[in-house]
TrEMBL record:
This is EAL domain-containing protein. The keyword Ribosomal protein does not apply. Keywords: Membrane, Transmembrane, Transmembrane helix. The chain holds residues 176 to 454 of 459 of the full protein. Signal peptide: none annotated. The chain crosses the membrane at residues 1-16. Residues 23-277 form the EAL domain. It comes from the Bacteria. It comes from Zestomonas insulae. The keyword Transmembrane applies.
Length: 279
């Protein structure tokens, strides 16, 4: 009995150590990824009800020298825990501003909007707002084309502080969207106070449309809520014509999902825009 217990303990210890070793390997890999520019941005088109591309969500990818393309699901969480999300997020914002700069020099791309995912720890930094403002100046971009995506988990903290920070950026032209809406627990009074321009309905509600009646109810309610508050409602994870139809019929005006396109590297995104403009 005693021997079994000790063996079990060693086994657990071994598992914990392996886990810890893998984590610290990931951490040091992430650090060198930043240094060696192994990150890239992909762009997922966002379309209006006429099928015009209005912009894209910016999604980070990691081109790992041994492991290949690593999905953000595998490293963003860890980067948030270690604080590495701060320099990674800064890099994403800078690349995005540079991309907007390039587009704004061409009449056909001038109005394209880019939406960037912002983590809680980024926004919590007191330097966040001044840094974003400085990048807008440095690249001389029209800030109306820059949208920051926040999630509901971000809102449970100090709402006053958050509102002040958002207001400073909104004043400069930046807009905010609430990502994964419906999956968190943000209260409607918070929603009303924050200067948000867009609600993104989470994919988990879209995927069961139109057969599932509770998803139908939630989606209809969110669209009506957004409309009544003067916000744009965008549906993410639209994969089928039937889902798109349902959303259009219920007043949703912007769409993102595999039905239209997966997230694309820049050249493919430009081709996608070219094709939809011709169509
Ligand atoms: P998210 O913000 O909810 O992004 C949407 C995710 O859904 C993306 O996954 C996208 O590829 C995927 N998606 C889009 N359309 C469809 C669809 O029709 N069907 C399905 N099944 N999936 C679809 P991705 O690119 O793997 O990103 C995962 C998450 O990683 C993002 O979720 C976001 O939370 C985070 N993330 C990505 N880039 C960044 C970043 O630059 N900074 C931060 N802080 N987080 C990021
Ligand atoms: Ca997002
Ligand atoms: Ca989302
Ligand atoms: Ca989501």
């Amino acid at each position: 009995q005693g021997v079994a217990a000790v063996a079990m303990m060693f086994m657990l210890l071994h598992i914990l150590q392996t886990d810890a070793a893998e984590r610290s390997e990931l951490d040091s890999d992430l650090r060198s990824a930043l240094r060696e520019e192994q990150f890239a941005l992909h762009y997922q088109p966002q379309l209006d009800s006429n099928g015009q591309v209005v912009g894209a969500e910016v999604l980070i990818r990691w081109q790992h020298p041994q492991r290949g393309l690593v999905s953000p699901a595998e490293f963003i969480g860890r980067a948030e825990k270690t604080g590495l999300i701060i320099p990674i997020g800064r890099w994403v914002l800078r690349q995005t501003c540079a991309q907007l700069r390039a587009w704004q020099d061409h009449p056909a791309c001038r109005d394209l909007r880019l939406a960037v995912n912002i983590s809680q720890n980024q926004l919590r930094q007191s330097s966040f707002v001044p840094e974003v403002l400085a990048m807008i100046e440095e690249y001389g971009i029209d800030a109306r084309c820059l949208e920051l995506e926040l999630t509901e988990t971000l809102i449970v903290q100090d709402v006053d502080d958050l509102t002040r920070k958002m207001a400073k950026l909104v004043e400069r032209g930046v807009s905010f969207s609430l990502d994964d809406f419906g999956t968190g627990f943000s209260s409607l009074s918070h929603l009303k106070r924050l200067p948000l321009s867009t609600l993104k309905i989470d994919r988990s509600f879209i995927c069961d449309l139109p057969a599932d009646s509770s998803s139908e109810t939630i989606v209809r309610t969110v669209i009506a809520l957004g409309q009544s508050m003067g916000m744009t409602v965008i549906a993410e994870g639209v994969e089928t014509e039937a889902q798109h139809r349902f959303l259009v019929d219920h007043g949703c005006t912007q769409f993102q999902g595999y039905l239209f396109s997966k997230p694309l590297p820049l050249p493919a995104f430009m081709t996608f825009i070219g094709n939809t403009v011709q169509a």
